[in-house]
Amino acid sequence: MKNTRSLVAALLALTVVAGAFTGGVAAASAASLTATPSAPGETAQHTATLTAGSTVDTSSWNGFQVNYQDAGAAASNVSVEDVATIGIDRGDNRTGDAVDVNVSDDLASVSTSNNGETLTFDLGGSYSLYEGDEVVLVYENVVNPDQAGSYNVTLDINPQSSGSEATATFDVEDTQQSTTTQTTTTQTTDETTTQSTTTTQTTADTTTSDTTTMSDMTTSADTTTTSDDSGSSGSTPGFGLGVGLLAVTGAAFLALRD
User: Fold this and answer.
1) What pLDDT, in 10s, does the model give residues 56-90?
2) SS3 18
3) How far apart are CA 142 and CA 40, in angstroms?
4) What share of the chain is helix, strand, coil (3-state, %, to 5)?
5) Does pLDDT of 3 surpass 60?
6) What is the pTM of this model?
7) Confidence of residue 218 (pLDDT cuts 50, 70, 90)
8) What separation in angstroms does the CA of 208 have from each of 155, 159, 217?
9) What single DSSP character describes residue 181?
10) Which DSSP symbol is given to 193?
C-alpha cells in the first residue's frame, strides 16, 4: 500500500512538471523588437513580432501590448496614424515584417499608460489566431532610451487575458561613426614644348620662279606674234610698187604705138 501511494505521488509530480514545461513553451515564442534608427534618444520606427502559442489557438485577436518599462522608451506620442503595419503571418513562414493577413481595418485604438512606457493596441476581434501564427506590428514615433544597451521588452498577445506573452531583447546602439576624409594631392608637371616654325621660303621662291617663266613665255609669244604681223605688213608695199611699175610701162608702150 505504501509503495502504491509513493508511485501515485511520483506520477502526479511528473504530470505537473510536464504540464508546466509544455505550457511555458506553447504560451508564446520568437518574440522580437527592433528600432530604426537604433541610436539613443532618437525618434524611431519600432517593429514588434510575436509567435502565438497554444493559449490563443483559435482565439480572436483582440489586442497587443508592448511594455517598455524596463527599457525606458517613450511611446506616449504613438497614435493609430503611426501604425504602418499590423497583421498576421500565418504559420510564421515569411521574413521580416511581411504578413499574410492585414488587420489594419480592425484596429480600434492605440493608448499608453505608465508614463508612456506601456503601449496598447486594441482590435475589434474580427480575425482569429492559431498556434504558430506570427503577429507583426510596425509603428512610428517611439523615442528610444537615452543610453545605449540591451533592454528587455515584454510583448503580449491579447493582454486582457495575459495568455500569450514573451520577452524580447531590445538593442539600442550608438551608431555614430567617425568619418575620415582622405585628401589626395595630384601634382601636375607642366611641360613646355618648343616647336620650330619653318617658313616655306622654298615654296614661295618656286612660285615666283614659275610666275616669271610664265611671264617670259607670254612675252615671247607676244613677240612672235608681232614679228609675224610685221612680216605681213612689209610684203604689202613691195607688191604695190611692182604693180605700179607695170602700169607705167604699159602706158609708155601705148604712147609709142600712137
Assistant:
1) 999 999 999 999 999 999 999 999 999 999 999 99
2) helix
3) 11
4) 35, 30, 35
5) no
6) 0.59
7) very low
8) 106, 113, 14
9) P
10) P
